[in-house]
Amino acid sequence: MSAEQPPPGGGTAEGAAYADRFAVETPEMVAARSRALQLPGSPPVEPAVGAVLAVLAAGAGARSVVSIGSGGGLAGLWLLRGMRTDGVLTALDGDPEQLRAARKAFADAGVAPSRARLIFGTPAEVLPRLSPGAYDMVVCAGPPREYAEHLPALLGLVRAGGSLTCHGLLSGGRIADRTARDPQTVAWREMARAVREDETLLSAVLPIGTGLLVATRRS
Ligand SMILES: C[S@@+](CC[C@H](N)C(=O)[O-])C[C@H]1O[C@@H](n2cnc3c(N)ncnc32)[C@H](O)[C@@H]1O
Predict the structure, then answer these.
(1) Is the pLDDT assigned to residue 5 strictly greater than 60?
(2) What band does 7 get if pLDDT is binned at 50, 70 and 90?
(3) Is residue 167 a contact partner of residue 81, using CB atoms and an 8 Å limit?
(4) Which CATH superfamily is domain 11-217 in?
(5) Which residues contact ligand 1 via a Cβ below 6 A?
(6) Please, which pLDDT band fits residue 2 given cuts at 50, 70 and 90?
């Protein structure tokens, strides 16, 4: 690609910064982001990604959403913004400190306790307790090796017309580098391929934040 030719989709650093500025966070979201950044582990969703989660939730009229690797609750706050006001977010994380931070984020934002169900555990422990086909959205974050093996179970939670999103697949650009063979990159590649090849799904990769894989189960 020549220097004059911008990357497809105008994917520049300035464009990404604009997309993040466009997605204005509430003071409670700003506080949740700042707390989450102080905790060990990967950072929370970027504002542009959070905004897309809210848009998807609103478009689906989401009443029932599960967030896997919910972290300090920032993605949850964005999801709750888009969900119906009687909707319930099920947020699962294997780190009690992250769950504590999420509980505080939801309380500070005035989210009624009945609207957020926080569950401590790994996908292997918790997924079998969730009802198949009952969720409008399943939202995954964190190391793909932790949930790639659960992809069939994750997809099994999604109702017809509902969606699965996985955040982080473009992190470091390794997925596009054919020579990158580290286990997390390989897990991302395999998961993205499995999603794309699943004929019950329509899927896309959005190059926002660290990359969002989005798939909708055909009705
Ligand atoms: C990138 S952070 C999530 C950020 C969150 N989605 C947000 O935007 O606010 C990833 C989270 O996945 C959790 N996690 C990683 N591996 C896990 C596992 N095996 N079981 C449960 N949670 C896990 C981590 O504790 C961490 O909170």
Answers:
(1) no
(2) low
(3) no
(4) Vaccinia Virus protein VP39 (3.40.50.150)
(5) 36, 41-42, 44-45, 69-75, 93-95, 98, 122-123, 141-143, 146
(6) very low
150 in active site: no
Q: How far apart are CA 55 and CA 165, in angstroms?
A: 12
Q: Which ligand 1 atom minimizes the distance to the CA of 44? A: 8
What is the distance of C-alpha 49 from the center of its chain? 8
Q: Which residue has the higher pLDDT, 11 or 60?
A: 60
Q: Which atom of ligand 1 is nearest to the CA of 42?
A: 1
CA–CA dist 163, 181 (Å, integer): 28
ipTM of the complex: 0.97
Sign of the Cα torsion 146, 151, 152, 155 reads positive
Beta pairing class for 212-217 and 158-167? antiparallel
217 neighbors 200 (Cβ within 8 angstroms): yes
**Helix and strand element counts for the chain (H, E):** 8, 7
Non-local (6+) Cβ contacts of 66 within 8 A are: 89, 90, 91, 92, 130, 135, 137, 138, 139, 157
- Any idea where the domains of the chain sit in the sequence? 11-217
**Atom 13 of ligand 1: nearest residue by CA position:** 69
pTM exceeding 0.90: yes
Cα dihedral across residues 169, 173, 176, 181: positive or negative: negative
d(CA 115, CA 108): 14
